[in-house]
Structure formats: structure tokens, C-alpha cells
Amino acid sequence: MDPLNGNSAPIQLSSQELISIEQYRRLKETSVLVILFTDIKGFTRITEDKGEQYSQLMRKLHDEILVSTIEEDRAGLVIKYIGDSVMAVFSEPSTAVAQALKIQEKIRQFNETHPELENILVRIGLHMGQVSVENTTQLDLFGRHVNRASRVESLADGGQIFLTYPVFDSAKGWLQSQAAAHLIWKLHGQYYLKGIEAPVEIYEVVDSRYQQPRPPLNARKKSSLPPLWISAACLLLGVALTFGIFQFKRTEVWVVGWYPQETIIDQKETMTLDGTKDQETRRVLNKIPVGKHLLHYDINYLNKYFMETEVKRGKNYLKPAFKENYLPALSRRLDYTKATPSVEAQQDYTYCFYDKNNQRIDNKARITLSIQGQDDPKDRDLVIFTYQWQVTLNGKIISQNKTSLQNKRSNPESLKKSTLLYEDAYQYWNLTQFISRDSSELSIEAPYIEYKDK
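Predicted structure:
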């Protein structure tokens, strides 16, 4: 069942469903979510032919496969059931696509091992977009992306996985690097979706061991060359040449499938777009000169997305190709007992900054930390925590120390201490020690310098 096939209104979400989405987004520390929509092909016919009891059994078996696959290892979260449809969210496009492929594989295996049942055929659609502003999920943003994911799913046939460009662009390189040589990625072209004015690029990912890509059926595809232009091509040739010369002298920048809520150009100004948010293609109103440029948007004090691009003379069409940049952060907690008297950790990080000329500066860092707990021999109520750490940045030790703090188990008040370890023009390294009764946590992180004192 396509829940939006005859209705252009967004999916309605309950307050509890919105709370679940917000909790998941905060847990994953992201403002961008991937929405997955599925449904069972021919479920209405199965119900009519086999009866309500049989269709309920099929839906139960289907739900067990989908929920276990979506939520395995906390990969994604099922938000809503709408008849035979499932709506879920993921924080990483590659994970969303990987789990969608697993769903189709598990459904195929289920069909092979249950010949006594009618085959289950599942359609899947995926779309990605920013859903949060100022660290709060916005219902209008989320609803728009849910609507688009549902429309994309409605174009698919049983066994197919259709994606929009943002999901394809982010997931393809990652999954290819995981040696998935049997995957085929296919651009089917631009299609018009019900209730959405501008056409949307539809991609398909398919496991070539079992089937091949198939274009959407019963869908209106955008023509690459309108017939009217073909008939008038000769008459307009002279005008086109003149217009082409004029366009060569003029520079325009357009964005396609743009999802960042606030994009910063060259670390100086916020991108302003013409048109409305639901349009697939929008013109950039900022004057962007010919040459190389840096685009970015912030997620939080440790996470930004960057995109290097080049603007050429004439019309430029930019599609989002942002790369995630996480700054170092490592934390460990010790719930002290004689059986667990210590905890330690070590992590390596590779990340980058851009200087005022948009030149990339690559960094490598290593954090090593440990917490050791012990009872005070003179006071059974007193616990002593000893902290040790070392931070190495680009081969140089920038902080190394060993300190102790103590706390009484009976003390209901918690203790928190923050220490600045190091800072430069781009980042500041901060250490936080936290104690509550006989538990302690040690955190070291390197936020962007502009977030200092905020």
C-alpha cells in the first residue's frame, strides 16, 4: 500500500513518534536523517484472495524481518507502521542502504525457504535531508522529507530499492569501499513525484547476483529535450547562438537537491536561495565569482560538513557532495568496584581544517586516557580517582599529565572540573572530570575554536 498515493498531505506523526525521532537524532548527534519507506507489493490483492487471517500472518512475518534488520546493532529506528508500510530513520546513508539491501536479501531467503506461502515482495524508497534547526527537530522539515521518501518508494516495484541523489551520493563511495563488487548503481533519470513540483533524480541500487536495475513503471519521466524545441530548433539557432555568447559572459549558480538548512560560502556569508524549500532546483542569489570555493554547514561544536567546488563561467549546477568532518572526542566512565578498579582507552583521529584562504589543513591526533579508582585506607567512605592522559597532535605531545580527585560515596552532590589543555587558531582541547559518588568519567575533546566560551 502506498499511503500517499491518493493524498498529497504529509504523513501525520504522533507526539510520541516525534519524541522517538528526536531522541534518536540526539543519540546519533546529527541534524541529518535518512528516511526509509517500505510496503508490500500486492498486499491488498493477497488480503482479498487469501483472507484477512492469512494477510495478517504475512504482515507479521514481514514486520519481524524488517524490524530486526533495521534495528540490528542500533543501526536504525522503526518509527511508524501504516498498514503494510514501515517508516524508519537512519543517521548514516551507507548504513540505511546496507540495511535496505539486507532486507531484500532476507526477504528473498524467506521466500525460498517457505514455498508453501505466497512470495513477499517489498518496495523500498530512501531520501535524506536536514531535519533539525538549532538542535531541535522541525516538524515541517521532517514531514517534507518523509513525504518525498514515500513518493520515491511508490515508484519502485517489488524487490527494488530507489534512492534520491543525496542518499546515492553519500552511500555509494562508502559501500564500494567495503568491496561490494556485486552492487549496481543506476541513475534512471528525473521523475515527477505526486505533490512535488520539480522532477527528482531517481537512483537504484541492486544486488546483481539476483536481478538487474529496472526503470520506474507508470511514472512520468522528465524529457531531456521537449518536442517543441526539436521542431523549432532550426528557427531558433541564431537566437541560441546569441544567447549562448551572452551566457558565456554571465555566471549563475544553481543548487539541485540541496538539503543543508544553512550553507556558508567561503567561511564568510550565508547562502541565500531563490524559490521555495520544496523546489528541487533553486538559484543562488549570492554573487559567487568564477573559481574554487568552499561550502560548509555546522552540525554541532565537533562536527561540520564541507564541500569543495568550482564555479565556472555560465550556468553552474551544484549537487550536495559534502564530506563529514568529526573532531576528536574520547570519553570513558568508571563505576568503581574492587572487581573493576580501572578503565582505559586509546583512539586515533584524522580530520581537517580550512584556513582563511580555503586551503585544507590535515591533522592527525591520538588520545590515550585512563581512570584508576581506590579506597582510602583511612576512610571507607572515601574513593580516590587517579586520571592519566596523553594527547598527541601531528606527532607532538600537546598535553600529558596525571592528577587525582576524591569523593565520598555518601556525598549526594556531583563534582565536575574542566581544564583547558591546548588551543590554536582552529581548535581548543578540553578535559572534563566528573564524579558522582563512586563513579567517575573522564572526557577529552577538541571543539572548533569558535565554540569556545559559548
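Summary: Residues 252-325 form one domain.
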